[in-house]
Amino acid sequence: MSSIFKNARHINVGGNIVNNNHNHYIGSGSKSSVEKLREHIAAGALHDSAERCDAPKCHPETRVAVQDEVDSWICDGDSDDAPKEIMWVTGPAGSGKTAIMGSVADTCQGKGTLGATFFFSSFSGSVDRRSKRCFVPTLAYQLVQHDAMDQVAEQILSTVERNPAIFEQRLDVQLDQVILIDGLDECEADQYHDTARSNADPRSKEEDQIEILSVLKKAASDPDFPFRIVIASRPEHVIQSFFTEVAHSVTRKLFLDEKYNPDADMELFLESKFASMRRRCHLSSSWPSENVRQTLIANASGQFIYVATVGRFMEGSAGDPDQLLNQVLRLPGIKACANPLAPLDALYTHILNSSPDPHLSILWLDLIFREKCLEVGRREISTH
């Protein structure tokens, strides 16, 4: 397939396509090739899927510098002194990676440069978003829908028609083009019946993550591969080692640190939320004080998820906003803490305790967690 892409440039891939022009491609079976492909995708992993309707997006005018840097690299990366084909967006939990990736996907879709996305999620109700199994078919399905990629679509569909079992093969056999990927660290392990490993430890999620990364690096290293690849994940040891030691020659790293001024973004976010509460509850234009805002930002320790959770807690509660805010500010052990995530832990605990039935809320969370574990276990058994 590489001959299709020879000398093609500036075809940027990252997400969800709309028009379906290839449903007519029908082989010897009763189902079209597109229908066969559709059976193997994780629909919830598309950036604008119904499953992700409540997924975080960057608040207007926030994370602008990060989004601009990613967008500039997608559009103009060829002009860099040392062009790279992969961008790794990384940062700790709660730093806003998924929101940034969702907003970048929206921007690319608006420009017509979006090709395919896959948003992994370890908490998704769909097991397909927590596994590599549907990864390549989901990306291929999106590319098939792309008006500007008729030749690629034709080759993908003819491959599916000739070999429907291709989705059971290794990823490096399946993938020949693609991509924007979020939450790679949330990809869990598929277990296979492998006599060579029958007495060994189960396959680890790190092995599947490295398999995905290896396939993407192989694609990016092909001079005829015209797509840029953006991958977002936490800086887990195995993933970081891969980008540092294996794929450093094709990778540009973007770490979400103080360089991108998260405090200023959080201040804009909080002001928007507080302005809405002031209008709704007829509060003074001076509410809350500047000291309160700065305290919340300091408690966040650069983690955007903290201020987002404060906002959701106050918007979702029926109490007086000032009292709710004071509850947050009075949480124990929240100031001068050596652990930057301790204020977030205290906030989550307070939200659970504030529910009408804290014990029942914890039971529901435990049930959801157990159901997820059982689902993974059932899936592992079914593959043996």
Describe the model.
This protein has 384 residues and is mainly α. It folds into two domains: 2-259, Rossmann fold; 262-360. The chain contains 15 helices and five strands. The protein has helices spanning 2-5, 33-38, 64-76, 97-111, 135-144, 150-162, 171-174, 205-220, 237-246, 262-281, 290-300, 304-315, 321-329, 342-354, 358-382; strands at residues 86-90, 117-119, 180-182, 229-233, 251-255. Helix 8 links the parallel strand 3 (180-182) and strand 4 (229-233). It is globular, with a radius of gyration of 23 Å. The protein starts with a helix and ends with a helix. The relative contact order is 0.13.
Quick rundown:
The protein has 384 residues and is mostly helical.
Keywords:
2 domains; P-loop_NTPase; NPHP3-like_N; NACHT_NTPase; five-stranded parallel beta sheet; 15 helices; NACHT domain-containing protein; Rossmann fold; mainly alpha; globular
Q: Can you tell me the residue ranges where pLDDT is under 50 for at least 5 consecutive residues?
A: 1-27, 193-197
Number of helices: 15
CATH architecture call of the largest domain: 3-Layer(aba) Sandwich
Gyration radius over CA = 23 Å
- Count all strands and give the number: 5
Average of pLDDT: 81
Number of domains: 2
Percent of residues in β-strands = 5-15%
What is the ordering of alpha helices and beta strands? HHHEHEHHHEHEHEHHHHHH
- The global form is globular
Distance between the termini: 34 Å
Largest sheet: 5 strands, parallel
* Strand numbers in spatial order across the main sheet: 2-3-4-1-5
Helical percentage: 40-55%
CATH topology of the largest domain: Rossmann fold
Helix/strand/pairing class, anyone?
mainly alpha
Could you name the CATH class of the largest domain?
Answer: Alpha Beta
